[in-house]
Known about the structure:
Layout: E1 4-9, H1 10-24, E2 42-44, H2 46-54, E3 59-67, H3 75-81, E4 85-89, H4 100-114, E5 120-124, H5 131-139, E6 143-148, H6 158-162, E7 165-168, H7 173-176, E8 177-179
Parallel strand pairs: 1-3, 1-5, 3-4, 5-6, 6-7
Antiparallel strand pairs: 2-8
Helix pairs in contact: 4-5
Amino acid sequence: MPxxxxxxxxxxxFIEGQKFSAKNKNVLKTNPCDKDICDPSWRxxxxxxxxxxxxxxxxxxxxxxxxxxxxxxxxxxxAENEGFKVTVHDRNTRNxxxxxxxxxxxxxxxxxxxxxxxxxxxxxxxxxxxxPLVSVAHRKNWEVExxxxxxxxxxxxxxxxxxxxxxxxxxxFNNIGHCEFKWP
Length: 184
């Protein structure tokens, strides 16, 4: 069985998971022009996420990158304790996330290019910024899977078309997260 490399865009999975949770609770936006509603109680269960995504395969590395939360937030320590190598970047002066996708592509490329044999790259994001990493993986004879919530990508989109398999996180939702408090 081939080994796998797991690459996680934390914000993508967290925000899309919160949107999915709100929809599951039938909390829907009232105006079609509004942003999707997020369930503020939903959290990622990092250990279960890693277990489900690895599908029993040996993990070469599990890389999770995100942007700095408030100083008292223990999310990064929790992810590390569950087996992720965590990298955190500060947000810019407009509170926008920067460098996360680039960091994931750089780390993924380094791991793929230094691996003795091909494996399976599992990208947890539907973001098309990962297409260069998909290209590197394919040139090195790796298989590539995209794990993302269905509302985070278009099946006919460039990212979805560039990977070998799509694994909708919608199907794993009840395993990979939990609600920390009652909402709404």
